[in-house]
Specification:
single chain; 256 residues; mainly alpha; 82% helix
Length: 256
């Protein structure tokens, strides 16, 4: 039953994508402006600039996103452990997380580029991604923990099990499906934050070999812009499919 629902979902998604492409094609014929709707050849030329002339850009993006998410999850798990020990202690982190939520990432990126040395400026996209994803991850982890059946906690109180064994052997496995959902959201946000940091910092670093740098130096080349948008969409979809497969496998194991 669940597999049929998933298949139907992807069928509808495919129909939506096809209709969107048809709409774009019709609008491109009506408006007839290659800056707004670049030709197929312009997009191919944009792909050459990204994939051939600046082939380091995608691996660097992936590395930056992975590093930032690892740090964000580590920091978030520490907060989760503290929250499990004493829920009131989350108040110590609330101001920091609120600051991460509301502060404009553009302002922070500019400030970081001003205070960091030239050799340290590559850290800006990573720091931005950490600031953007950490509040989402913390909120997701705490919500998933709060949704654990309280009966399980009552049983664990009767058992002589160490705190960390409870966390890593019982709580986290139960929270794993929710953790994967949070990871999926964090990947998309992390990609956006990294590219934004690279884009804003282009003038300071003059680095063409990043997606943000390519966007900055090709602002009038709509073929490049459209290809990068397609590329980021494809990367996000691949991540979503992989995580969905992991969720299905985890749910099967939980049922067993």
């Amino acid at each position: 039953m669940k597999n049929s629902i998933i298949k139907s979902k992807y069928i509808y998604s495919t129909i939506t994508v096809v209709l969107l492409l048809i709409s774009i094609f019709i609008l491109s014929k009506i408006i007839n402006n290659t800056f707004i709707f670049p030709t197929f050849q312009m997009v191919i030329d944009g792909a050459k600039i990204v994939l051939i002339d600046n082939y380091q850009a995608i691996p660097e993006l992936i590395i930056f996103v992975i590093v930032s998410l690892l740090i964000s999850f580590l920091y978030s798990f520490v907060i989760l452990v503290i929250y499990i020990l004493n829920k009131n202690l989350i108040g110590f982190f609330t101001p920091i997380l609120s600051f991460f939520h509301v502060v404009p990432t553009m302002a922070i990126s500019v400030y970081l580029f001003l205070i960091l040395d030239k050799n340290e400026k590559f850290l800006v996209p990573i720091i931005l991604a950490i600031m953007v994803t950490t509040p989402i991850i913390v909120e997701g982890l705490i919500t998933s923990y709060d949704n654990i059946d309280k009966g399980i906690e009552d049983v664990l109180k009767l058992e002589q099990i160490s705190f960390f064994k409870k966390v890593f052997k019982i709580y986290i496995p139960l929270m794993l499906p929710y953790i994967l959902m949070v990871l999926l959201q964090s990947i998309s946000l992390g990609i956006k934050a990294v590219v934004m940091g690279e884009f804003i910092g282009f003038q300071q670093t003059d680095s063409h070999a990043t997606l943000g740098g390519i966007l900055y130096s090709n602002q009038v080349e709509s073929g490049v812009i459209v290809f990068i948008l397609i590329l980021l969409f494809v990367i996000s979809v691949i991540c979503e499919v992989v995580i969905k497969i992991l969720q299905i496998q985890i749910n099967k194991n939980l049922v067993k």
